[in-house]
Amino acid sequence: MVHIKRIVVQGFKSFPPRRQAIDLPRGLVVIAGPNGSGKSNILDAIKFAFGELSPHALRVSRFSELIHQSSEGGTAPMARVTVVLDNSERVIPVDDDEV
């Protein structure tokens, strides 16, 4: 079965401009944390990476709002999200363990 192995986020919503990798183990994954800590933004990042085209579905008014805004007023130069899929069982017809 294919599963999300890693999410790499940079400058997306509450994630700062520096690259952050979130490794996800196989099986059930629980995202927990206090209000405002970015739990929903992780799910928004996955939707964005898979091509969500509705700003409303990503909980913003305009796509430009997806780019990280610091509390000091600065804006990240870009927003980038990469989703790495575990393909070790070759479910996706690509000859690689990661897609």
Overview of this protein structure:
The structure is a single chain. The protein has 99 residues and is an alpha+beta fold. It has a single domain (3-86), classed as Rossmann fold. Helices cover 11% and strands 19% of the residues. The protein is built from one helix and three strands; from the N terminus they run ββαβ. It has one helix spanning 39-49, and strands spanning 3-10, 20-23, 80-86. Strands 2-1-3 form a three-stranded antiparallel sheet, covered by helices on one side.
Write a brief caption for the model:
By secondary structure, the protein is α+β, with helices and mostly antiparallel strands.
How does the SSE layout of this entry go?
Layout (H helix, E strand, L loop, with lengths): L2 E8 L9 E4 L15 H11 L30 E7 L13
Q: Strand order within the widest sheet?
A: 2-1-3
Tell me roughly what share of residues is in helical segments: 10-25%
Residue runs with pLDDT of under 50 for 5 or more positions: none
Summarize the main sheet. Answer: 3 strands, antiparallel
CATH architectural type: 3-Layer(aba) Sandwich
Per DSSP, what share of the residues sits in E-state strands of 2 or more residues? Answer: 15-25%
Q: Tell the overall outline.
A: globular
Give Rg in angstroms.
Answer: 15 Å
Whole-number tally of structural domains: 1
What class would the helix/strand composition place it in?
Answer: alpha+beta
Q: Secondary-structure element order, as H and E?
A: EEHE
Number of strands: 3
Cα(first) to Cα(last) distance is 13 Å
CATH topology: Rossmann fold
Say which CATH homologous superfamily is assigned: P-loop containing nucleotide triphosphate hydrolases
CATH class: Alpha Beta
- Overall mean pLDDT stands at 95
Number of helices: 1
